[in-house]
């Protein structure tokens, strides 16, 4: 009888731990309580491919768009390493790969001598 109880407890633990990446049930139930209709978001640039030969490609909102092709009502007119430009009826829209990152050059303070480091 103890053996059967032990097997049952172990099996129930394995069923619950089947997917270690799955969020806890409390999170899932909280998400189900939110509105099922997601808010309309602006397109998001996910990746840029700049091949040596051929047309550059951008992945916008999960869709592969080549230079000159349309994404929705807009046309992809420029692809660079960090951003793309879509032209539509409302004008140009620039999408960045990392929109939340503020990149700034670090300038050394003048008048301070320091050790130089060998960086590979």
Euclidean distance between termini CA atoms: 65 Å
Question: H/E series, N to C?
Answer: HHEEEEEEE
Tell me the strand percentage band: 25-35%
Tally of alpha and pi helices: 2
Give your account of this protein's structure.
β6 (83-88) and β7 (91-96) form a beta hairpin. The strands form 2 sheets. The protein has a 4-stranded antiparallel β-sheet, with no helix packed on it. It is of the alpha+beta class and 120 residues long. Helix content is 20%, strand content 28%. 8% of the residues are buried. It has helices at residues 2-16, 25-33; strands spanning 45-49, 57-60, 63-66, 70-71, 74-79, 83-88, 91-96. It has a domain at 45-96: SH3 type barrels, CATH 2.30.30. The mean pLDDT is 78.
């Amino acid at each position: 009888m103890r053996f059967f109880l032990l097997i049952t407890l172990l099996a129930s633990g394995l069923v619950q731990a089947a997917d270690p990446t799955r969020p806890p049930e409390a999170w899932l139930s909280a998400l189900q309580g939110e509105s099922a209709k997601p808010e309309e978001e602006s397109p998001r640039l996910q990746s840029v491919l700049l091949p040596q030969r051929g047309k550059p490609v951008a992945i916008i909102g999960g869709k592969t768009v080549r230079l000159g092709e349309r994404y929705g009502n807009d046309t992809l007119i420029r692809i660079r390493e960090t951003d793309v430009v879509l032209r539509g009826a409302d004008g140009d829209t620039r999408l960045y790969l990392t929109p939340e990152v503020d990149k700034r050059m670090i300038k050394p303070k003048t008048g301070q001598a320091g050790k130089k480091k060998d960086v590979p």
